[in-house]
Amino acid sequence: MISGVQSGFLSMRDEERARLFVERARAAQGAFAQASQETVDLAVTAAGWAVMEPRRNRALAEQAVRDTGLGSVEDKVLKNHRKTLGLLRDLQGARSVGVLREDPAAGVTEIARPVGVVAAITPSTHPVAAPINNIINALKGRNAIVLAPSPRGAGVCASLLGYVHDELAKVGLPKDLAQALPSPASKALTAELMRLADLVVATGSQANVRAAYSSGTPALGVGLGNVAAIVTPNADFRAAAARIAASKTFDYATSCSSENSLVVIGDAWGPLLAALEAEGGVLATPDERRRLEAAMFPSGALSPAVLAQSAPRLAQLAGLSRDSYADCRFIMAQENVSNIGSRHPLSGEKLSPALTVYRVGDFDAAIDQVRAIYDYQGKGHSVGVHGASPHEIMRLGEELPVGRVIVDQVHSLAVSGSFENGLPFSMSIGCGTWGGNGFSDNLNYRHFLNITRIVRPIPPREPRVEDIYDDYWRRYGK
Fold it and tell me: pTM of this prediction?
């Protein structure tokens, strides 16, 4: 039953409803903007404990799967824990109040300033890990945040916020530093929230990202996934297969960082496929591949019914009845190298334990294949590689339109920050101008800061014209 107050609230115009949230956030943030680094770090630690406390983490993971129907409880428990712990590690000791940097030689002092009120659009695929990541980063910058969760993730987001509020109260901070729009949040309400906020962070569908960029408010949005990984003949096939399988099956491939395609070079084909089958992969026959594609893309777009389901469930939906599908971990579908684009949807993002495999002749062909895949979907995100030489790895970084080259790692875990690499822990992966984004690094707390620069006079460093042009004149004349 809806109370009279709630009923009145639900009947308000979207503009008025959004304004109430933003006004409360501004009131809380106005005081928090004066907080010391010690208080800010206490807020970050408190918010993190909302998820790090094991019983709450499990309860949130169970509710996330129950409410959304997406992913695996055990994997969400691990994801919530590792991504939050990693973020807390990254932020420990990081300055976000007062002076960030002094450069006496340049006469520049950098001072951290809050953004204000952040509006964060969060997806149903990560209904706990993404919101808590945004909350912690916003608090680190002395901001307030209002979440706009996906409809299916609204319930678990409300539970998460309840835990966050409990922890903020323990340390004497106002709960209005972290809020969420109530369910159901209309598109108009979310749009008005974005318009009124000082910064928009959008993670999830490209429709969300486009709406954020169109809001009139400075926005940080992420590009499309559709990761490809290259396997060379020099790879350790068992190790590569184990990494690929772990990445592809984690949380039933809810992450845009899971491999969607493998590009396998020459003699690596046979031993790699054998190793992948040993890891629980099943190679579909040509007829099964057609049925899989029809079930996953019945009208050319990815069906919500297959999103983040287990491989046996995916096989069932596609009518694949071989015994080997009953307990498989992922399904492989071989495609011709030329089968890329909207007429061949298995070349695109699948967000499910289905993996498209291509066989090419050499490393040059592998680069061309990945580039063609990304010309269709996935520019700017990342590429994985197993068994490449240092020269080949550098070629990937210099020639492909990607923000990250993930070398010999579990891709979906490594790309968003890992204890085994130096990337910041993040749930939002910037794809640069290749992916239509304004940043190409992992979203981190510095994106939630304004920086003021005090600029003092220094001894002049004006060069002579000759210092710049002497070599040019010698070679080409004046």
Answer: 0.94
Q: Quote the CA–CA distance of 128 and 66 in Å, as a whole number.
A: 13
- The residue type at 369: Q
DSSP letter assigned to residue 145: E
- 325-382: pLDDT as tens digits: 999 999 999 999 999 999 999 999 999 999 999 999 999 999 999 999 999 999 999 9
Between the alpha carbon of residue 455 and those of residues 208, 276, 367, 468, 478, the distances in Å are 39, 58, 46, 25, 36
CA gap 27, 176 in Å, rounded: 8
DSSP state of 69: -
Q: Residue 411 carries which DSSP code?
A: H
How many Cα atoms occupy the beta-carbon half-sphere of 337 within 13 Å? 14
Q: By the 8 A CB rule, do 198 and 213 touch?
A: no
CA separation (Å) from 461 to 87, 106, 457?
41, 10, 11
Whether residue 256 lies in the annotated active site: yes
State how far the Cα of 251 lies from the Cα of 339, in Å rounded to an integer.
Answer: 28
DSSP H or E run through 395:
helix 390-399
Strand order in the sheet with 281-283: 281-283, 330-334, 354-360, 259-265, 227-231, 383-386, 405-407
Q: For residue 214, what are its two tokens?
A: 């169109």
Q: From the candidates 157, 256, 328, 431, which is the catalytic residue?
A: 256
